[in-house]
Amino acid sequence: MLCPCGTGREYEDCCGPWHAGEAAPDPLATMRSRYSAYVLGLPDHLRATWHPSTCPAHLDLEDPDGRRVVWLGLTVKSHRVAGDRGEVEFVARYRVGGGSAVRMHELSRFVREGGRWYYVDGDLS
């Protein structure tokens, strides 16, 4: 199976190891693994890669009305690492229920602690 994150690589050679618990090497791999976790319905991975200071107490992968979110694609615009901090700018597309596609553009911030990268927060535009 091709990885949902859009690299064109097989899942087992892309986000699969991060979902199995290995530490992703950088913010870009962490962000791609998080996108794939949304696609595949893996809330435990999302929580494990979310910094404890900003991780929500409850994580629901459906919209507030209980409709299924279908992820349609990911485009990485840029990524930067400076020491133990990093940023990834991306556009993700999704559809809620049978509705129109939605475009989400975010600049995400990551921090490395204990050898692991964590999503801290992001700015939507």
Give an overview in words:
A 4-stranded antiparallel beta sheet has the order 1-2-3-4, covered by helices on one side. The radius of gyration is 14 Å and the shape is globular. A hairpin with a 2-residue loop joins strand 1 and strand 2. Helix content is 19%, strand content 38%. The chain starts with 15 loop residues before the first helix and ends with a strand. It contains 3 helices and 4 strands; from the N terminus they run H-H-H-E-E-E-E. The protein has 125 residues and is α+β, with helices and mostly antiparallel strands. The protein has a single domain, classed as Nuclear Transport Factor 2, Chain: A. Belongs to the UPF0225 family. It holds the Pfam family SEC-C. It comes from Pseudoxanthomonas taiwanensis. InterPro entries: NTF2-like_dom_sf, SEC_C_motif, YchJ-like, YchJ-like_M.
Spatial sequence of strands, sheet with the most strands:
1-2-3-4
Beta strands, count: 4
Compute the number of structural domains: 1
> Which descriptor suits the 3D outline?
globular
Protein name: UPF0225 protein CR938_10950
Family: Belongs to the UPF0225 family.
InterPro entries: NTF2-like_dom_sf, SEC_C_motif, YchJ-like, YchJ-like_M
Task: List descriptors.
single chain; 125 residues; alpha+beta; Nuclear Transport Factor 2, Chain: A; 3 helices; 4 strands; YchJ-like; SEC_C_motif; UPF0225 protein CR938_10950; NTF2-like_dom_sf
